[in-house]
Design goal:
- It is globular, with a radius of gyration of 14 Å.
- The protein has one helix at about 30-35, and strands spanning about 5-10, 15-20, 25-30, 40-45, 50-55, 60, 70-75, 80-85, 90-95, 105-110.
- About 5% of the residues lie in helices and about 35% in strands.
- It is mainly beta.
- A hairpin with a 4-residue loop joins β8 and β9.
- It is built from one helix and ten strands; from the N terminus they run βββαβββββββ.
- It starts with a strand and ends in a 30-residue tail after the last strand.
Length: about 140
């Protein structure tokens, strides 16, 4: 998925345009992601310079660890971003895009922290912690 993909939070206060290629969707089952979202995260990512944001004054950033912060809409509460402090990319929640069907799943991470009330049976690679090339916080 590339070339000017657009999306927004639930209330529309935060709008985004991505002008570069997006990574495949990574499904994160870690405890932090589950506690913030109520289930698991589904996020893609893009280089910082290929993301344009309108309504950034409505983004609240939460320092979830010394490694990364999480952004959400201060008006409607929509989860928006996960950003490692020292990385050149930003993770974007897959459900924000106006055309999420253009995205494709790539893998599951932190499957060792997945609770037992659901199964992963989509055939995508599963990693106990992280997959190669995906930045994650040190526990």
């Amino acid at each position: 998925m590339d070339e000017s993909n657009k999306g927004s939070c639930l209330c529309g206060a935060v709008r985004l345009t991505v002008t570069g290629p997006l990574r495949g969707v990574v499904y994160c089952h870690c405890t932090q992601c589950r506690k913030q979202s109520g289930h698991f995260y589904a996020a893609t990512s893009v280089a910082d310079g290929e993301l344009e944001i309108e309504g950034s004054e409505h983004i609240t950033w939460y320092a979830a660890s010394d490694f990364a912060r999480r952004g959400f809409c201060s008006r409607c509460g929509s989860l928006l971003f996960w950003k490692a402090h020292s990385e050149p990319d930003i993770s974007i929640m897959a459900g924000l895009f106006d055309d999420p069907d253009a995205l494709a799943g790539s893998c599951h991470i932190f499957v060792g922290q997945k609770p037992g009330h659901y199964e992963i049976n989509d055939g995508l690679p599963q990693y106990e912690r992280s997959s190669p090339g995906v930045a994650v916080a040190e526990d």
